[in-house]
Amino acid sequence: MVANMVDVVRIPKLGLSDYGDLVAWEVDIGEPVEAGDVVAVLESEKASAEIEAPASGVLLAQYVEQGEEIAIEVGKPLAVIGEEGESAPSLAALEDGGGDDRSSNADGSATASGDGTAGGEAANGGAASADVKATPRAKRRANEADVDLAGIDGTGPQGAVTESDVEAHLESGEGAPVGDDDESDAGSTTDGKATPRAKRRAEEDGIELSRVDGTGPQGAITEDDVAAFASGGGDDGTDAAAAASGESTDDRLTVTDSRELTGTRKTIAERLSESAREKPHVMGTRDIGIERLEEVRDRLVEERDVDVSLNDLVLHFVGRTLEDLPEFNAHFEDGEHRLIDEVNVGYAVDSEKGLVVPVIDDVPNRDLEDLASERHRLVEAVLENEHAPSDLQGGTFTVTNVGVFDMDVSYSIINPPQVAILALGRRKPIPVERDGDVGFERGMTFSLTIDHRVLDGADSGAFLDCLAEYLEYPGRAFDAV
């Protein structure tokens, strides 16, 4: 049993997804800490969360390495705080229920809001039993590996099967696949026997698994076998030498820098790769005049002292369009096209950590000044890395402004589980025909990308036509303007 004076720093209820990275320890082992000080920073699903010390004392131990990906489970021990010179308990003792849970973190409370799960993130695979409690990533992993979740012991909250449990099951050899039919798998060996982690590691390092000796059950190649080969334990060390010299598998090329994806960038890569694989993307574009919209903006600023930008007006009319065409204000999950009542528009922001999409809720029902204020608040919060997990949740549609990069068109990837995304191009002269004469006026190109499983080209045309009607004749929508 852990001494009563020890306080456990645990993961609170954060509203992050099921996995994330511990990106920073703000206090080192042996350093003093005051209650309320930030001890660590977790990052997941494009949001960061600061973990505070539950009590004053000295940090006795850290149970997670900086940069390590962990399961974000409420109550999971991260560190302990006690008196100087006091012995730190083992992680096993804490996980078995030892220790004093006086920690404010232990009850799942936190300043960041959210439900602590990534809802609807994965569909149940055919190999995953429907009545087994498992995390979305565990279900997806089991589906990929053709493993029955009913045969795996769960170590997550309330006995849920986690992705780590599935990986451990596969590493044990009980679930090691024999994939001699999968010729496209870069990690296949001559007899196809290798664990999923071994295959991924081999693909990352450019190693042919046929050259690696397996030490796992029934001779299966494990991740440790691949790591040993890469470090020079292989038959001729060619791959290890290439890695050490910075050369790619094509020895005519030299790698000058190798940057591992971590934290936010890794999450973005995973989510957008999943979207690109699963969603058949179709894009349509339209040039829309904005001269009247600019006139409305100028009148609002000059006559009513309303501080709004052109982007705010576009967001307002996007919200109106989504009300008119609710099939775009939707999610596609578990084979269902789910139309959503709330119109919550994500607005993509280019930050130092990558593309982050804060969500402006209830867009059509906000007055323009309130809409502009909320957009400004969210953009500033993202740029200063002060946004809360709740700022990124609940989106039903996304708008991204590529015009700030002097671009006209963008084939944007849809943010799952949404079904469409709209890109705004730069302001530019566009040709306009009036009374048989062709002239030019200021306009923008709007690129609409849809999920072709639930929307068609005709739907795209209807959306852009509706939006154009609002933007080219905004006075009709503002009775007093």
How would you summarize the topology of this molecule?
Layout: E1 7-10, E2 19-25, E3 32-33, E4 38-44, E5 47-52, E6 57-62, E7 69-71, E8 77-82, H1 91-95, H2 136-145, H3 163-171, H4 196-205, H5 223-233, H6 238-245, H7 263-278, E9 281-289, H8 291-304, H9 310-324, E10 330-333, E11 336-339, E12 345-347, E13 349-351, E14 354-356, E15 359-360, H10 368-383, E16 397-401, E17 420-434, E18 437-451, H11 457-472
Parallel strand pairs: 12-16, 16-17
Antiparallel strand pairs: 1-8, 2-4, 2-7, 3-6, 4-5, 6-8, 9-18, 10-11, 12-15, 13-14, 17-18
Helix pairs in contact: 2-3, 4-5, 5-6, 9-11
What proportion of the residues form beta strands (DSSP E)? 15-25%
> Any idea how many domains?
3
Globally, the shape reads globular
Q: Using DSSP, what is the number of strands?
A: 18
Distance between the termini: 72 Å
Question: In CATH, what is the class of the largest domain?
Answer: Alpha Beta
Order of helices and strands: EEEEEEEEHHHHHHHEHHEEEEEEHEEEH
Number of helices: 11
Overall residue-averaged pLDDT value? 79
Poorly predicted residue ranges: 101-130, 176-191, 235-249
Query: Superfamily at the CATH H level of the largest domain?
Result: Chloramphenicol acetyltransferase-like domain
> The CATH topology of the largest domain is what?
Chloramphenicol Acetyltransferase
Radius of gyration: 26 Å
